[in-house]
Amino acid sequence: MELGIRSPVHATLFHHFSNSLLFPARLTLLNTTSSSFMATHLHVSSEEFDPSPSLAIGQHDLLIVGPGILGRLVAHNWRQEYSGCQVFGQTATTNHHRELTEIGINPSLKWTKASLKFPYVIFCAPPYQSSDYLGDLRLAASCWNGEGALLFTSSSAPYDCNDNGLCHEDSPVVPTGRSPRTDVLLKAEKIVLEFGGSVLRLSGLYKVDKGAHAYWLEKGIVESRPDHILNLIHYEVRI
Fold first, then answer.
1. What was the pLDDT predicted at 30?
2. Distance CA 102, CA 79 (A)
3. GO MF annotations for this entry (predicted)?
4. At a CB cut-off of 8 Å and minimum separation 6, what does 62 contact?
5. Is residue 3 part of a domain?
6. 68, 80, 86, 230: which has the fewest C-beta neighbours closer than 10 Å?
7. 207-231, pLDDT tens digit by residue?
8. In a domain, 94, yes or no
9. What is the span of the domain harbouring residue 208?
10. pTM over 0.85
């Protein structure tokens, strides 16, 4: 994969898309439980923390905003590809800081200002976890130094496809005002593109115990067309 891709919105529905993250590495998503790397650069604290501007940031260091399932898998593969690099994870709470440290991610709470600049920034935090999602995204984008890549993992929700037909990256998007959910995603994508970053619209991420299948299995009989097309992308698919 080439470095520094500047393109509007990337999405290919109905295909596995884990090999299309716009970073210069083969990010095959694997399980993180085997990692023995221990982070030592930042201290876990119950108070809001601004990383020191004097902390040296290397050319392959990565900031992950929202290091959940996807972010942790990216971190695992990133460290394998770039031995000795630092991976930082910005979170809304300290609830998972200890486990993030154990898998090699330097955790901190949401920063109040962009005190450090990173060559690689990926924003994969969901909107429902923030009271100011667009503000958080702007702050994350301001942490990017313009090199490497800035990537926002969006959703396929903005596509105006509801006729059970195929959908691709050039398909029309829903008009503004139809849904608060799609409004915030479209605004977020616009912010990232204005910063010169890239957008990746992912659809149907799942693993054994998490995803659309787990939701619908609890619903019993669903009054819907039985031939409806469903797109699923496994978190841990290996290309």
1. 28
2. 14
3. isomerase activity
4. 74, 75, 78, 85, 86, 87, 88, 118, 120, 121, 122
5. no
6. 230
7. 888 877 788 888 888 887 777 777 7
8. yes
9. 9-234
10. no
